[in-house]
Design brief:
By secondary structure, the protein is α/β, with parallel strands linked by helices. Helix content is about 45%, strand content about 20%. Strand 20 (about 455-460), helix 16 (about 465-480) and strand 21 (about 485-495) form a beta-alpha-beta unit.
C-alpha cells in the first residue's frame, strides 16, 4: 500500500504545529508485509535500541540526581535578553558582587584526570563535604581566568592547608592565573571567557581583589602560591611563615653494592647523564654537582623573585640589599605572625576568619561556578542553532539534503587539540603512570584526519623513557606537522625522551622552573653473579650466540657485548643530537655543547634557545588561537584515548564524548545524519528525542530545531 503521511504526525501524534513552525511535508511511505527474516532483523534492531535507551535512561537519572544544576542553559531571546531554560536558575544575578572561593586546602589538583573504574565508583559512593574535589590544573586555571573576565565576580578568595601537591612549574601556571585576576582594573575592556561570541566585549565597573587565608604557612610551596594573592593573612597568632630555600638530596649506593658484591655497569652519553649514578658513583662527580647546583640556583631565584615582586619586597637578584634581605629571611627559622607582618610577608592575622572586604561579596563556590560556565557554553550552542534556524527560515532550501545541512551546522567549528604525554614514554600502550607510543601515535593520526583541528598542542610532563617509543612519536609528529601545526607546552618535567618528542614542535613553551634538556642516552644493569656465588649459588650459561644473555642480571658484560652496546648508545645519541639540531635550527656543534645529558631549567633553556617562550599551557593555547585559527575562538579539546570506567560506560550509550558540549552535540548530530541518511524519519525522531531528554530543552525549542531539519 502507498499512503501519504506527514513527518510531523510521526513526531507529535497529530498535535498542532506551534506558531512559527513550518508547514508539514507529506511524504510517501511504502508499507509491506514482512518476511520472517525481516521481522527478526527489525526485532533485533528494536532490542538493541531498547537496550541503549534503557542504559541512557539510567545514565540520565544518575547524572540528574547527582548534578541537577548542570541542566540549566542560558538561551538568548528575541529582544536580546537571555533566560535560563528548564533548570534551577544557577546563573549569577545582576547587581550582586560575587567572590569566587577556591578551597585549595581540600582540592586535589592533577595534570590529567584519568581515573579508573574503581576510583570512579569510590568517588560516587564517598559522601560528605570533606571529600577532596579532584580538578585538572588546566580547568582550574581556565575557571580563574573566566572569573577575571566576568564582571559579576569582583573577588577571589582562597583557603590553604598544610601542603599543596603541585610541582614548581604547575605552581607558576596557577600563580599566573591569580595575577591575571589581580590585574583586571575598573573600566578595562576584557573579552568574555572562552571567547564566546554570544557575549559582547564587557567593561568592568568594579575593582577586582584577591585574598587568601591559612592557619600557618609551614610549607614553602603553599606560601609561594599564596603570595600571588593581593592580601595574605593567617588565622591565628601561633601561625608561622617558614621559608627555607630549596634542596636536592641524592643517595649513592655503590659502597653498599660493593659490600654485597653486586656489580653495576652503566654506559652513558655523556658526563652529565647521571640518572644511573646511584649505582655507579660513591659521591657527586664535579659535573654532576655543577649541574645540580646550577638547577637549584635557577629555581631558587625564580621562586623568591616572584614572591618579592608579588609582595613588593627587595628582589634577591637585583641588589646586594635584596640578597642580604632574603638570606636573613631564609636563615631565621620560623617567622611568627607579628614578625611576618612587619617584614611584609603577610598582611596580618584574621582571627574572625574573613575581613570585611570579603564578607560584603556573595559567596560563589568553585563547583557552582564551574557548572555555570558549562551552562553558558550549552546556551551558546543553542543560540548558534537558533541563528542558523533563522537563516534557513529566511531562505528557501527545498533541495537541501542532509549532507549540505550537516555542513551548514558544522561550518567554522575550529578546534585546538591538546594531547597529554605524562609519565614514562613506553612502547605499546601506557599504564597508569606512563604513556605508550601507541597511545600517542593513534591520537595524532586521528587528529591528522580531523579537518576541524587547526593546531595540536603537546602537553608534556615526562622524564623520558624508551628511545624506540620516543622515535615513533617523533615520526608521527613530523608527519602531522606537514598538515597542521604542532606546538608544545612543558609541565614540571620534559627531559630526555620528553625533550626528544618536543624538539620537532614549531614552538615550545616552558615555565621558568620546568626541568628540561637531558639530551643524552644511558643504559645499565646490575650484575648479581658474584652476590649469588657468595651464598653458594653457581650460575652457568649456555647460549647459541655471544649476545644471547646481554641483558641478563646474572652475568657481567663481555668485551664484545660492551662494544656492541657502546655502538648502539653512540648511534642513539647521535640521532638525538640530529633531531635537536634540526628542530631547534642549531649547528650540531652548538647542540653538543647543550647536550651531554645536562638538565636545564625552563629559564635557562629559554636563554639557550632550547625553548621559544616562557609560559604555561594557557599561553600556548592563546598563541594557537591567534596564529592558527581564523576567528581566535576555536574550541579547545583535550584529546585522549584513555577513558575512565564510568565515562566509557556513558560514552557507550551515547551520553558522553570527549571535548566540550557544543562540539559533542554537533558531532553526534553529524554522525547520526550521515549514518542514517537512508532513513531520515528515524534520524529526525531520534534527534528529537535526544534533544528533548538529554539536552533538557523545552518542547517548543525541540520542535523549532526539528523544523530546521524538515525544511
Amino acid at each position: 500500500f502507498i499512503k501519504s503521511i506527514t513527518i510531523h504526525d510521526l513526531m507529535t501524534n497529530g498535535s498542532p504545529i506551534p506558531a512559527g513552525g513550518t508547514n508539514p511535508i507529506r511524504v510517501p511511505v511504502t508499507l509491506r508485509k514482512s518476511s520472517g527474516l525481516s521481522f527478526v532483523r527489525r526485532a533485533s534492531r528494536f532490542t538493541l535500541r531498547a537496550t541503549r535507551n534503557a542504559f541512557a535512561t539510567v545514565g540520565i537519572v544518575t547524572v540528574a540526581a547527582g548534578y541537577a544544576y548542570t541542566r540549566d542553559a542560558e538561551i538568548e531571546k528575541e529582544d536580546g535578553s537571555s533566560v535560563v531554560i528548564n533548570g534551577s536558575g544557577s546563573e549569577l544575578m545582576d547587581g550582586i558582587r560575587y567572590r569566587l572561593e577556591l578551597p585549595l586546602h581540600n582540592i586535589k589538583i592533577v595534570e590529567r584526570n584519568d581515573q579508573g573504574l574503581q576510583s570512579t565508583i569510590q568517588s560516587f559512593v564517598t559522601s560528605g563535604s570533606d571529600k577532596p574535589l579532584t580538578i585538572e590544573l588546566r580547568k582550574l586555571i581556565d575557571t580563574i581566568v573566566a572569573a577575571a573576565h566576568d564582571p559579576k565576580i569582583t573577588s577571589l578568595h582562597a583557603t590553604f592547608g598544610d601542603n599543596l601537591h603541585l610541582g614548581p612549574a604547575q605552581i607558576e601556571e596557577l600563580r599566573d592565573a591569580i595575577i591575571l585576576f589581580n590585574q583586571v582594573n575598573p573600566g578595562q575592556s576584557s573579552p568574555n571567557a572562552n571567547n564566546n561570541p554570544d557575549h559582547q566585549t564587557i567593561k568592568l565597573d568594579k575593582p577586582k581583589s584577591s585574598s587568601c587565608y591559612t592557619h600557618s604557612f609551614g610549607n614553602q610551596k603553599v606560601y609561594w602560591t599564596a603570595s600571588a594573592f593581593e592580601r595574605v593573612k593567617m588565622l591565628q597568632h601561633s601561625g608561622v611563615v617558614m621559608l627555607t630555600g630549596i634542596s636536592s638530596t641524592h643517595i649513592f649506593a655503590k659502597d653498599l653494592l660493593d659490600r654485597h658484591k653486586v656489580g653495576a655497569e652503566g654506559i652513558f652519553r655523556e658526563k652529565y647523564k647521571k640518572a644511573y649514578s646511584i649505582f655507579t658513583d660513591r659521591t657527586f662527580t664535579p659535573e654532576h654537582l655543577d649541574n645540580i647546583s646550577s638547577i637549584l640556583a635557577s629555581i631558587h631565584d625564580s621562586i623568591f623573585s616572584s614572591i618579592a615582586k608579588s609582595r613588593s619586597l627587595p628582589s634577591p637578584t637585583e641588589s646586594s640589599f635584596g640578597r642580604k634581605f632574603w638570606y636573613n629571611v631564609l636563615n631565621s627559622g620560623p617567622i611568627f605572625d607579628d614578625e611576618a607582618e612587619q617584614t611584609g610577608l603577610v598582611d596580618g592575622t584574621a582571627l574572625g576568619g574573613e575581613d570585611e572586604t570579603v564578607k560584603e561579596c556573595e559567596r560563589l563556590t568553585l563547583e557552582r561556578y564551574s557548572r555555570i560556565l558549562r551552562n553558558r557554553e550549552k546556551g551558546h550552542f543553542f543560540n548558534q542553532v537558533k541563528r542558523q534556524y533563522q537563516k534557513l527560515k529566511e531562505n528557501s532550501f527545498t533541495d537541501l539534503d542532509f549532507s549540505k545541512l550537516t555542513k551548514i551546522i558544522s561550518d567554522d567549528k575550529e578546534k585546538i587539540a591538546i594531547v597529554h604525554i605524562n609519565g614514562q614514554i613506553t612502547t605499546g600502550y601506557g599504564e597508569m603512570n606512563s604513556t605508550g607510543d601507541l597511545d600517542i601515535t593513534k591520537a595524532l593520526r586521528e587528529l591528522k584526519d580531523d579537518d576541524a583541528v587547526k593546531c595540536v598542542i603537546l602537553r608534556i610532563d615526562s622524564p623520558g623513557g624508551s628511545p624506540i617509543a620516543s622515535e615513533a612519536v617523533y615520526n608521527e609528529i613530523i608527519s602531522l606537522d606537514q598538515i597542521k601545526p604542532v606546538i608544545c607546552s612543558m609541565g614540571n618535567l620534559a627531559a630526555s625522551g620528553g625533550y626528544y618528542v618536543a624538539a620537532p614542535c614549531r614552538k615550545i613553551y616552558a615555565s621558568p622552573t620546568t626541568i628540561t634538556g637531558s639530551i643524552g642516552v644511558l643504559f645499565g644493569k646490575l650484575d648479581l653473579s658474584n652476590f649469588l656465588e657468595t651464598y653458594g649459588l653457581n650460575v652457568e650459561h649456555v647460549e647459541t650466540g655471544q649476545y644471547a644473555n646481554i641483558l641478563s642480571m646474572l652475568t657481567s658484560f663481555s668485551s664484545h657485548q660492551r662494544e656492541i652496546l657502546e655502538h648502539y648508545i653512540d648511534h642513539t645519541y647521535n640521532r638525538f643530537l640530529a633531531i635537536v639540531s634540526k628542530g631547534r635550527s642549531l649547528p650540531e656543534a652548538d647542540t653538543r655543547k647543550l647536550a651531554g645529558g645536562r638538565i636545564w631549567t625552563g629559564e635557562q633553556a629559554y636563554n639557550l634557545g632550547l625553548v621559544d617562550s616562557l609560559g604555561g599551557l594557557r599561553c600556548a593555547v592563546e598563541f594557537a588561537q591567534t596564529e592558527y585559527t581564523e576567528k581566535g575562538d576555536a574550541l579547545v579539546e583535550v584529546w585522549s584515548n584513555k577513558k575512565s570506567g564510568f565515562e566509557a560506560l556513558l560514552k557507550g550509550v551515547g551520553l558522553v564524548t570527549e571535548g566540550n558540549y557544543t562540539e559533542n552535540y554537533i558531532s553526534n548530530a553529524t554522525s547520526l545524519l550521515n549514518i542514517s541518511s537512508s532513513n531520515p524519519v528515524d534520524s529526525i525522531k531520534y534527534l528529537y528525542n535526544d534533544i528533548s531528554s538529554i539536552c533538557t530543552v523545552h518542547d517548543d525549542w525541540a520542535e523549532q530545531w526539528l523544523n530546521l531539519w524538515i525544511d
